[in-house]
Structure formats: structure tokens, C-alpha cells
Design brief:
BirA Bifunctional Protein, domain 2, 2 domains, 436 residues, nine-stranded mixed sheet, Rossmann fold, 22% strand, elongated, homodimer, alpha+beta
Chain lengths: 436, 436
């Protein structure tokens, strides 16, 4: 029986056209990271499952992870996200290196998902993180995200960054509404799903979870907040009454969000960044600012990237707390975004400097020699194998973006020459082989 | 219990220094491939195990492959080599594209091995293949291999390419010695292991496998051949007598090897390439020229790369035969080679253009602004967070290769200026912020 020629479900074959596109995107990611002095890293493809048990959400472990037992009886998994690996690596070095630590990576990840638009089983994800930098680090990651989007030619007309703060969410869910952890998690999920739900259904679920009309009203007020000014007004309503949880205070839970927006304002970034109460980010490790980047096109309304601040990723390694902020940006939704907005160059044809061809087989050795000489001068050269008629060579030359065609025929061979056709300027010249 | 901070056995954490080295090596691989007009590709991390069953050696499947059953009951494996994926991809397109097809990739692969020098469980491998180009393709792959090695500064004093031809080996094992497939495979393994064995043991094993003193002698003659002239003399001895297998002939089985060396000679490549009867390559799919690149340093005597010509990789997909030639080069033995010969730059420190620092906290916004401006001019900029004294900033500046330090103090802030220290030329200047 013949084997299947298709790739494994949810993964892709990258033929040259797709691979040039991928290289283009990865190069921008690396370049912009280096502009911000972030340093490259990578970790192993496999990690022990315990690492993810300790840090990733339950959904990831139970439903999405590719895990198996190796020949040495270790339970391992193909990495479904990069943050746990980064935490493991930073735990090794953070005592010796000067903070902040700025790092970026573009790993391939796997998750067992139902393949659909913008979602595949194997994908690459750009990751950038800064450790030990406080609020300036949070600002910098947002700047980096904006610069990365702009490097592809995207503007604030194409995308927006929606931010929220877990401390503010805690203030509302814990302090104002007075919920325990269980119902709080349910509210998180409900907020996440809000835009995919009918208003009545949402309203009913709020009441089921909070179990109280007054609490439900506070929650509904919260999800309707649109600006920092809205939040201030909202918070003022409650500042006079005693909050449910004693440690909740406006200073600890709201000031960071106010400060961030002040800094964003002073740096002219508010045309990109907006407050949105619906951004909560499912992962457990976020403790401060959280954000997602969205396509503004309503047809392609999904997160291209997301991230947030964490107080303590190193705890699971028994290391002292080290705050940080990170982001992840998927190459699949980014490509969808860039395609939708026609921001991608055409990668159909390869760019090659010279096509070297020979019209008589006796010239083969000379053609090999010429190609070698041009390559020594750092020119991209394709050697057309076998003697061929000019017509055939010209026809082939249209398959790639060649700049020049070099011909060696009987005449040229006899005189130690090569005829060079400049395809860009439509000129022709004959040069001595030894002069190249 | 705290989790382990170490990577999974046989895999590596790439901290910035190691990652810069890896990027340097991969960039050279891509650059040299493009000089030869090879186009980039990649395939999935996972393939169905059947693909490897059909094409890879038994050792790989039984002992080295990372395979498991996915949640949909498919038997899948993390790719242990790239050639089967490439064959699957070429099977999809070969009818539509103009030949030759030139492709390269730098995939990460996994094999369950006992980690040791030059061998890890997760590693990257450069792959280059050409399909449908005949003997010129074989020459081109050898040229490409040589150019790649030379791009790192290696010369024929550092490395050599040892070649053989499966057709010649068949001529000897099948035609001259008259062995069946079983003993032939054993002889392959024996040849492979020759240099790690005592002469007496080798001699005894030859006699066990061939079961005949005369045959053993022919085999011993074969393994002592050193040049193409030796082969010609050796072959002449037998040309007068009837060969065991009728289809074996000097024209079919030796001429390709003679021709290759003639071409290598005319292109001045014989200072890099030598005939070696001990190169046979274990994999089943090779049918013509085979080669390995070796470090000439006797301390580091292992193959850095290997490859060969195959007549028909597409058969398992029920596609018509398409000849090709490919090579694989491991990043682990290559790095060992480059390290041994001191051919690697120092990647300890990151290269950054500007370190932007502020001496008073009021200057923070200006510093952020300056950094943003410099980045718009494509400069790599690190922002030093928090007000700091010059001494602290200078001390920090030694951690990376900065070209300039920008300071904004009280004075500069008042005048809308920045003081720039040129660390390379040891000069200092003050510039208006708005003039940058």
C-alpha cells in the first residue's frame, strides 16, 4: 500500500514559498527584539510533564498536551508553550546575572487541537520576556509588541492592544463582589466568552455564579467599563464603603493600572493601547498587567498575541520571587492578520542573482568554474545543467527572479568569454571569464 | 518538592551565548545554500511511524525513534531524520515543477541515544538535496558541502571528504565475492566498524562472514584500496574472468566513480575529496555515490556530515522513480569541529549599539523617547531602567559590546539634550534631543 503524501493532521509542509514567508516573519521578530536588546534563547523540544503540571492550566495538561513515556520511563511532553521552559532556565541563572533579564525565542510548539482557521497542532510562537524590571518592563514589552506589529507595516488602524490588570480584576471579584476562588475562576471564563454569547445568556450566568442580584450588578458595571476615567468613577462609588476583603485597597489594586496608562500617554502609545475589562487571560501565573493584541477587522476578530506580568514564576524551583512580564505571539494568527491587510510581500519566486547556462556540453566545466567564481563574490548562482538552447533557458529563467543570465556557447568557449544578459536593465555584454 | 532545573537528558538549554552561536551557524548554512540557489523548506515535527518504517534503517525504528500513539490512535514519531519527510513533500510536487529540484532545511531531530561527545538526543541537522540532476547534482552537493565548510574558515588542512560508490561496493560484494543480501549487510557493518577494531578480529570476522578464504582475500584487497588508480588495477585483475552476477559490469558499476573523480579533478576539488572504501553509509536508500566529511584531526575522528545518491526515494508513495543526491550535516559534530580548530568567534557578549541611561528619575520619559527615536533609525538600544550614578552605568556597560552610552542628567534634561559617550573612539559629545 502506498503511503500518504499528506502531513500529519494539524501540521504543515513548508514548501519554499511558505518557508520564505516564515523566514521573513521570523527575521522581523529577531530584528525587532534586538532593537530592544532582547537576547535569543531556546530550550528543548521535550520537557518532563511535571513542569507543565506545575505551571500550565488544566486544559492544556488534560486535553491538549502531547505527552508520552520515554524508553527510560520518564513522562515527557512536547512543549505546548515556552514560559515554563524559560522559567526553568531563568531559575538556573538569575542569581548570577544583572537584572533586568531580557529574552526572546521563536520555538515550535504542539497542542492537540481541532485544526481550524488560526489554530493548528504545530505552530511557532514568538516569546519575549523581561525579568526584574517592574513597571518599566511592562511598558517595554508593550512597546516591543507595537514595534513588532509596525515592522510589518501595520498601524493603529489595523490592530489594537487591549489591556487589563489582574490586580484590578481581583479588586472587583474578590474585594467588591466578595467571591471565593471557585466562582472567581468561573467569572474569568465567563468574561473570556462574553463576546461569543447572547446578552440574556450572559446575564443569567452572571446571576448563577454570583448568586446575588447586587453582586451581579457590580459585575455588569465592571464589564461595561471602557476607559481609565470610567474605572476611577466606578471605584469612587465604592471607596466610601468598607471593602469585603481587608487587604484589597485602591492603592494596591488600581494605582498600577492608572500609572501604566499615564506612562503610555506620556510616550504617545495610547493610540495603540486601550483598557478592556474582558481581557483576563486564562493562565494561572499572571498577577498584574495582562494584554492581548487584536485585529481591528471585525472579520478576523481573534487575538494575535497575548501576555502579562507575573510575580513569581520561579517558585516551583524553590527560588526567590522574581517578577517579570512576557508576551507570546503566534505565527499562524499573525500571518492571517498580515494576509487580511495585504501587508505581505510576494514570496512565490526565489531571488537569485545569476543563472549560468551553457549552449554546448563542452562548456560544462567552464560553466561550473564561472558559477564557483561568482559564488566566491557572494552572488547567488544557479547552474543550468546540461547543454540547452537559449529559448529553453529563457523560459526557465521566468521561474525565479534572476537578475542576470550568463551564456557560454561555442564562440564564448573558444574565446574564454561569457555573454551576460542583464534582465533588469535589458542590456547584454560579453566579458572575459578570467576578468570575473 | 521543587522541580528540576535541568533540561531533559540529551537535550540542551540554549542561553544567549549558545543561541548566538547556533544562529551564526544556521545563518551560514542558509547563506551558502542560497549561493547555490537551493530553496528553503521544512516539514512537521511529527510524522506517522509508517513513513520511517518504509524508509529508515531498522536500528532507527527499533531503538532510536521517539514514537507514541496520539489521542486519535495514530502511531506517530518525532522526526529522527529529514529525508523521509522531504521524499513525502517532493512526491506531492515533482510532477509539476521543473527539475532539478534543489532544497535545504535545518530541522531539529530527536533520537533516543546514549548522550556522548558529538551525539545528543535533540540536535539540528542541515539537509541539502537535489532531485533530477544526475551526476552534475552529485558534484554540486559535494561543492556545496565544501563551500559550507569553507564559509566557516575551514580548509583542506582541517577536513576531508571521503567518498565511495554503492555501485562499486555492489560490484565487489555481489559480483566478485558473490554474496547474498544477508552477508552483504554484515560486511557493510564490518566495513563501518573497521577503524574501531583490532586487525586480527577484523580478519577473523571477514572469514566468518564470507566463509571462504579466497573471498576474504578479495574483500581485504577491496578495503585496502586508496586511489582511483588502485581501483582500476584491482578491477583489471577480475575483468578477464566471468563475474558471479550477470548484470554486474565495469561500465555500470565502476564508470560512475571514475567519472566523478574526473569531474572533481577538472574543477580542482580533489584536494578536498578522497576515495575511501570504508565509506558505505548504513541507510538502505543510497544507491550511488556516498560520502562523509571527516575532521582531519585524529583526536576528533568522526563524521561531521554524510550523504549520498539515491535512485528512488518516491517509490513508497507509488510515484515514478526520481533520482537524487542529498547530504546531512549535524550541528553538534560541526560545532565540535569548529571549536577544536578555533574557527568560532566569541559569542559571550551581545552586540548593542546604544545604552541609554538617566541620572535623575525626571529624565525617564526623555530616555524612553530617545530610545524609541534611535530604534526608529534601526539602532539596537538598551534602556537602563531607574536613575543611576555614572559609575554604576559604566560598570554595567562592560557586560555587553555597547558602542555608545547616552546619559540624560539634570543639566541635559533642562536643555533638552543628551550626552553621548563613544566607547569605541573614546570621545564625548552633547546633542539636542530633537536633532536625533
Amino acid at each position: 500500500m502506498a503511503l500518504s503524501k499528506s502531513p500529519y493532521r494539524g501540521t504543515r509542509d513548508f514548501f519554499p514559498k511558505e518557508m520564505r514567508l516564515r523566514n521573513f516573519i521570523f527575521q522581523k521578530m529577531a530584528d525587532v527584539s534586538e532593537l530592544f536588546s532582547y537576547e535569543p534563547y531556546d530550550g528543548p523540544l521535550l520537557e518532563e510533564v511535571d513542569l507543565y503540571r506545575a505551571k500550565s492550566g488544566e486544559e492544556l495538561i488534560n486535553e491538549q498536551i502531547y505527552s508520552f513515556t520515554d524508553r527510560g520511563d520518564r513522562e515527557v511532553a512536547i512543549r505546548p508553550e515556552m514560559t515554563p521552559t524559560l522559567a526553568r532556565m531563568v531559575a538556573q541563572i538569575h542569581r548570577e546575572v544583572t537584572k533586568p533579564i531580557r529574552m526572546y525565542a521563536i520555538p515550535n510548539l504542539m497542542r492537540y487541537e481541532k485544526p481550524q482557521r488560526g489554530r493548528l497542532r504545530e505552530f511557532w510562537q514568538y516569546n519575549a520576556d523581561i525579568f526584574g524590571a517592574g513597571q518599566n518592563g511592562e511598558i517595554e514589552i508593550l512597546q516591543l509588541a507595537i514595534s513588532l506589529m509596525k515592522s510589518f507595516g501595520a498601524t493603529h488602524e489595523h490592530f489594537e492592544i487591549l489591556v487589563n490588570d489582574r490586580r484590578f480584576v481581583d479588586f472587583v471579584f474578590g474585594g467588591l463582589i466578595g467571591l471565593e476562588q471557585g466562582p472567581t475562576k468561573k467569572l474569568y471564563k465567563l468574561v473570556d466568552a462574553k463576546n461569543k454569547m447572547a446578552a440574556e445568556k450572559f446575564s443569567a450566568e452572571v446571576r448563577t455564579i454570583t448568586g446575588d442580584e447586587e453582586k451581579a450588578k457590580i459585575f455588569e458595571q465592571f464589564v461595561s467599563l471602557k476607559t481609565i476615567q470610567d474605572i476611577k468613577t466606578f471605584a469612587d462609588t465604592f471607596s466610601s464603603r468598607t471593602l469585603t476583603t481587608s487587604e484589597v485597597s485602591i492603592t494596591n489594586h488600581l494605582k498600577p493600572l492608572y500609572d501604566i496608562f499615564e506612562k503610555l500617554e506620556s510616550q504617545g502609545l495610547t493610540e495603540y493601547v486601550k483598557f478592556d475589562p474582558a481581557i483576563v487571560r486564562g493562565l494561572d501565573y499572571y498577577t498584574g498587567l495582562v494584554f492581548e493584541i487584536f485585529d481591528k477587522n471585525p472579520e478576523n476578530r481573534r487575538a494575535i498575541a497575548g501576555g502579562g506580568a507575573y510575580a513569581n514564576l520561579l517558585q516551583i524551583f524553590n527560588e526567590p520571587a522574581l517578577e517579570g512580564m512576557g508576551m507570546g505571539l503566534g505565527e499562524v494568527p499573525l500571518t492571517d492578520f498580515l494576509t487580511t491587510h495585504k501587508l505581505l510581500p510576494d514570496f512565490t519566486k526565489a531571488d537569485v542573482d545569476y543563472l549560468v547556462a551553457y549552449l554546448v556540453s563542452d562548456a560544462e566545466t567552464s560553466a561550473f568554474e564561472l558559477a564557483a567564481k561568482l559564488r566566491e563574490k557572494n552572488k547567488k548562482v544557479e547552474l543550468f545543467f546540461g547543454e540547452a538552447k537559449p529559448k529553453k533557458i529563457f523560459t526557465y529563467s521566468e521561474k525565479k527572479n534572476f537578475k542576470f543570465i550568463c551564456f557560454i556557447g561555442d564562440e564564448e568557449l573558444k574565446n574564454g568569454e561569457v555573454k551576460i544578459k542583464d534582465l533588469v536593465n535589458k542590456t547584454e555584454s560579453t566579458i572575459k571569464l578570467k576578468d570575473i
